[in-house]
Design a protein that fits this description.
It is found in: Endoplasmic reticulum membrane. Pathway: Glycolipid biosynthesis; glycosylphosphatidylinositol-anchor biosynthesis. Belongs to the PIGX family. By secondary structure, this protein is of the alpha+beta class. Helices cover 19% and strands 35% of the residues. Strands 1, 2, 3, 4, 5, 6, 7, 9, 10, 11 and 12 form an eleven-stranded mixed beta sheet that branches. Strands 8-13 form a two-stranded antiparallel ribbon.
Length: 223
């Protein structure tokens, strides 16, 4: 790996995060531009440590499929997640998202992470719940390099430098400036005054579907 110049390393990185798409199923796009020259960034791994609130989660089965196809590399803590739990019964989630070099920029890194909104309690007079996604911590790991403690703060992250390897790595927290302080996910919620109507419609649809299934079973089934 190529050593990073200490003076260049003291320059702040630029971080942006953006929520793409609409509704419950979104993509979190993360971009980091290191404050170093392109040749100095070579050999360094970059990751974002993201704290997801209870109102948003990552599907571990979807993530496993993406990792098998080398699309997205990430570590979930905890790795067992109840994807069916509503927001008020769920807990927060820590994600270590590995960023890939951006071919359009020699010292830029980026990654996209699929995230999903959880169902919230019905509200009285609002049709959307707001889930605030704070800015994550930017981490850098440069092999065989002793970085200055004045510019780099060791991070307590027990994870390899890459999602494709298992070798231990010393991560360092990078000072960075934010383009946006936080991202806000708007999730549709039901209204409490509609509860009776929803229950009646659900009961009627369930009864209709059950009768159609029973009719088909009696007509075409073999007893």
């Amino acid at each position: 790996c190529v050593a990073v110049d200490v003076q260049a390393a003291c320059h702040e990185a630029t971080f942006t995060q953006e929520l793409l798409k609409e509704g419950f199923h979104r993509d979190l796009l993360v971009k980091v531009e290191l404050g170093v020259a392109g040749e100095d960034a070579e050999g360094c791994a970059v990751a974002a440590r993201i704290h997801l609130p209870p109102g948003i989660f990552v599907d571990p089965y979807e993530l496993a499929s993406l990792q098998q196809h080398n699309v997205t590399q990430a570590v979930l803590i905890p790795d067992v997640i109840d994807v069916e739990a509503p927001e008020y019964l769920a807990t927060g989630l820590l994600v270590l998202l590995y960023l890939e070099p951006d071919p359009r920029c020699s010292h830029c890194f980026r990654a996209a992470l699929p995230v999903h909104g959880r169902y919230h309690r019905p509200a009285e007079d609002v049709e959307e719940a707001l889930v605030v996604l704070k800015s994550p911590e930017v981490l850098v790991c440069c092999c065989d390099n002793h970085l200055s403690a004045e510019c780099w703060k060791p991070a307590e992250v027990e994870s390899p430098c890459s999602g494709r390897t298992s070798s231990p790595c010393q991560w360092y927290s990078v000072r960075h400036k934010l383009v946006y302080e936080e991202s806000i996910l708007k999730i549709p919620v039901g209204l409490r005054q509609h509860s009776s109507l929803v229950c009646v419609v659900t009961l009627l649809v369930t009864a209709l579907c059950s009768s159609l299934i029973l009719r088909a079973a009696c007509k075409y089934g073999h007893w």
